């Protein structure tokens, strides 16, 4: 019994109650080492099969993402009574659920970006090279165009165009400034969540934050869609907006299209700056 009392005292002294839950990984003595930044340019990647395999994964993932999400949007718009459809909540779940599933499937191959804004934010934080980032963005945009194209093929040109093609536009009653702000904040939420959910500190032995990264990322997408579908239809993904706009190809979609590139890239930049300044500022050292 005396031995047990000593163990309790030792434990109480070792883990002070003053230490907030979830911050034990921030101690200098924990098993964590900050990974080195990715090289700015890495030409050697161009001769590696894993480089092209990752690009193919990004293409397929973005293709499937657009196929499911735009088809869901078309089904809601098509119905004369929204009560007979999944509604805005269903659209948000389609986007968030697909991101959850696709990030889970592709994280081990390409990192599961599926979004040029995410790729841009990770590039700024030196998580990948410019070579890989540009390749990812091209493959994401191509996948999005093909995904939206398949939806148009299923629905027919007339019906697809009549229902808006799932293209992102700033809704009536809102200014382009409103739409830009919504895209900036929405993308910040997404990319900030990506950085937090994939932070290597969370794999530290005693971080006390066990987590499945794709889940919070997909949930962030779901919540942002709930908030901003009435404003912009929710872009927060330039590839998704580009794919739908190219296949829909109507003037009013192109008039607002810059919002869905500028907003997400600004939001991703702010999230990357926050990650570098706030999160990386915490010193971590591996136990010797």
Main attributes?
288 residues; mainly alpha; globular
Succession of helices and strands? HHHHHHHHHHH
Number of strands: 0
What characteristic shape results from the CA principal axes? globular
Helix share, percent: 55-70%
Number of helices: 11
Residue-averaged pLDDT, rounded? Answer: 84
Low-confidence stretches: 6-29, 282-288
Distance between the termini: 34 Å
Strand fraction band? under 5%
Structural class by sheet pairing and helices: mainly alpha
Largest sheet: none
Kindly summarize this structure in a few lines.
Helix 5 packs parallel to helix 9 and helix 7 packs antiparallel against helix 8 (about 215-230).
How are the secondary structure elements laid out?
Layout: H1 2-14, H2 49-78, H3 87-106, H4 116-124, H5 130-155, H6 157-162, H7 176-197, H8 214-232, H9 238-248, H10 251-255, H11 259-279
Helix pairs in contact: 2-3, 2-5, 2-9, 3-8, 4-5, 4-7, 4-11, 5-9, 7-8, 7-11
Written account of the structure:
Mean pLDDT is 84; it is low at 6-29 and 282-288. With 288 residues, the chain is mostly helical. 63% of the residues lie in helices and 0% in strands. The protein has eleven helices and no strands.
């Amino acid at each position: 019994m005396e031995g047990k009392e000593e163990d309790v005292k030792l434990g109480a002294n070792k883990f002070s109650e003053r230490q907030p839950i979830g911050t034990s990984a921030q101690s200098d003595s924990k098993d964590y080492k900050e990974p080195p930044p990715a090289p700015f340019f890495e030409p050697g990647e161009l001769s590696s099969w894993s480089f092209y395999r990752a690009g193919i994964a990004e293409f397929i993932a973005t293709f499937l993402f657009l196929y499911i999400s735009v088809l869901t949007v078309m089904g809601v718009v098509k119905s004369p009574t929204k009560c007979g459809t999944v509604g805005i909540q269903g659209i948000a779940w389609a986007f968030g659920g697909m991101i959850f599933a696709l990030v889970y499937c592709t994280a081990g191959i390409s990192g599961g970006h599926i979004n040029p804004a995410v790729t841009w934010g990770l590039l700024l934080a030196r998580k990948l090279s410019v070579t890989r980032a540009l390749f990812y963005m091209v493959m994401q945009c191509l996948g999005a165009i093909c995904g939206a194209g398949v939806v148009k093929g299923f629905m027919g040109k007339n019906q697809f165009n009549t229902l808006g093609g799932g293209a992102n536009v700033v809704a009536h009653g809102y200014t382009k400034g409103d739409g830009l702000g919504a895209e900036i904040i929405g993308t910040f939420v997404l990319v900030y969540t990506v950085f937090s959910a994939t932070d290597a500190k969370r794999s530290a032995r005693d971080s006390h934050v066990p987590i499945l990264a794709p889940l919070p990322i997909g949930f962030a997408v779901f919540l942002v869609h709930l908030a901003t579908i009435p404003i912009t239809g929710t872009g927060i993904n330039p590839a998704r907006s580009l794919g739908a706009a190219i296949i829909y190809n109507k003037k009013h979609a192109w008039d607002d299209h810059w919002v869905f590139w500028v907003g997400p890239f600004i939001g991703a930049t702010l999230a990357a700056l926050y990650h570098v300044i706030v999160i990386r500022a915490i010193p971590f050292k591996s136990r010797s």
